[in-house]
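**Folding the chain**
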Amino acid sequence: MTRMTRMTRMIAPPLALALPLALAACNNAEPPRTYDDPREPCADHNPQRNLYFGDLHVHTAYSFDAWISDVRTDPAGAYRFARGEEVAGDRLARPLDFAAVTDHAEYLAEVEGCTTPGSLVYDTQRCVDFRAADDAALVQFGLGLNSETPKRFEDLCGPGGLDCPARAAAVWQRVQDAGEQAYDRSAACEFTSLIAYEWSGVRKLANLHRNVIFRTRDVPAAPISHFEAPTAFELWSRLQSECREGLPGCDVLAIPHNSNWSNGNLFVPEVPEGSDPAAVARLRAELEPLLEVYQHKGDSECSNGVSGIGEPDELCDFEKLRTDEFEDCGDGVGSQGILSRGCVSRLDFLRGILLRGMQEEAKLGVNPYRLGVIASTDTHNGTPGKVEEATYRGHFGTLESDPAARLTAAIPAGPRNSPGGLVAVWSEENSREAIFDALRRREVYGTSGPRIAVRMFAAWDLPNDLCERADLVEVADRRGVPMGGVLGERPEGAAPQLVVAAQRDVGTPEHPGSGLARLQIVKGWLDAAGDGHIAVFDVAGAGDETSVDMDTCEPRGAGADALCKVWTDPDHDPTLPTFYYARVIETPTCRWSWRDCLTLPTGERPAICDDPTLPRTISERAWTSPIWVDPS
């Protein structure tokens, strides 16, 4: 199947917006592109960018918390799954365009040693317990990362044990080999694999994790783990010195995820003693231009009940792991977020982080949190892109092997987990360099699973009829900036104009996609005193006259096939720093947990099936990267 055929099926050509969103044909007028990672030039090269869907957060049997859940799919198997091949009796109905396996850099050596008969540590009690999937063994491995000065297990990596750095480097080479084998270097450019790993720092049981994504096959000889770089600053510094400055052809991004588990710690500004705060902020901004806003541990866009991120917003209750009363961290930080305990911070959520970034810029002259938005799965089954509610099979192997097990599991939140989401990229082509460069410039967005197509641009003078025009992208590119950009100098008297165009995911014959219910623009700004504010605007939509038959999960009502709006900020103050992002909401469908409940006889359903705090429906969505408008 060719790239344009696959895209045409996804974008739904009968819709009015098919041409401006995805383009009917590629424009090859540009000179041939040169590649840092040698390959044939992509036939689908398009200066106005194509839309590609992928997953940048994927664990396999190389991760300690996947292997102990009886997962045996390795990175090569995960890439085959992403490309549409059957793996372990399952397959994707629609292959992904790109993916990155992000196994935990920590314990690569230890997991291999514990699971390889005849290794120096195979018969140690710790390894025996690990292979037996002992709960205490999982806790020991997890707590081993909960320190600012973490140390490897001496019984595994000490005298007489493994040479853990050398063994980790060997496993890392196999990760690279799997990525190389999966990468389509032909002109068809059907699939892109990105070499990656996860840095898994924890502090006081608060999450600090990042996924480290490389641009090409030129990568360090060993991953920089929490053991080698105990803090985020040390990670950034070593990635800068050992990759971007020390290794020709190497470039890298670190993508924070699960800020909703961090008690404010993931994004609290931290400056090592003796360091220049502005220099630290610049380094962070350069290496971390993105936030993973959604994955199987829930949503990190916003939360009602947290101070400093705007008025209550009904759509901020979406896919939350915590439904209990919680303490607001205020200007402080807390602990135990990965256990769904401790205070909740405005810096746990996209809106608060973006506002804090503008506040830091006012102090330092640089914004460390000018963040684009992506989503991914965080699957621990080696099944990238497995996001459909109707076919969800859990994320932790045999621990979630059937409906009853999924509804009563406790890892990490059982029935409150989600299938996770996808990252969408507007890129000139499906090559490593082009996908990475789109991530770097933030022309990307996240979805909670559906392949909704969304474009957003901002300018000072957009035509009011732009939504009806086939040259939408050409005009918007010429006059303004796409999602992820910063709008330039303001003409006298002008206010920012945004055009947002969205198309529904048509789905598959077995599982058709849902219509679109609402198109919203979320605005954030600082007032003259430096305090942050949020406002949400409904700019287009078919209304909410849709529902779901809860006995059959059949939808009632259709929603819209496409939504588009040229919107002018009615209250723009050119003296105040501002950002805008779009949120696209689908009509409701049955959540996976209720579908599982329906498969069980009424008398055999677990109590969670009747728990009013667990939603029975879900309104899937997409979140775009913001566009920023700096003060005049």
Summary: Residues 73 and 97 are 20 Å apart (CA to CA). Confidence is low (pLDDT under 50) at residues 1-20, 23-28.
